[in-house]
Amino acid sequence: MSKIVADSLANPLVDVNYRGTVSLRVKCTDIIQHEEARDEVKIGYEEFKTDVTALFVAAHAGHVDLIRRLLSAGADVNQKLFRGYATTAAAREGHHQVLGMLLKAGASQAACEDALLEACRHGQTKAAELLISSEMTRPGVSVHALVYASCRGFVDIVATLIK
Q1: Mind listing the domains of the chain with CATH numbers?
Q2: ANK repeat boundaries (predicted)?
């Protein structure tokens, strides 16, 4: 961890929940169906500008040490942004250790449910397992997650949700 980050987090005047604008890169998939040729799956990345917190960016990037420091400095694990919560970013990107840390830090029911839906949209089986085992998701949300996973063909997630 750089000295600048450590010094900034130690400074009582630094707001660890400050929202700033960044450019995020998110994985996207497109399925192109051809009549007489094989169907095609294109995987790419989309960049967009959005307001985020340091915790959200660290969760998106899977930066465990920085998340640990931000949480100990008082970062709000339940701060909702345009693209969801920090738990949503961790689930979307498949950062299981980060997701576990955020759950232990007190992620709310809303944050966990949002993350479960995102995990099921992106085929993140381990993230879905962590969120279901946290018992922070209502049955109705789990049904929606099951529909997402079923429609996208994520058999492992479907099996996890049916248990």
Answers
A1: 3-162 (1.25.40.20)
A2: 50-82
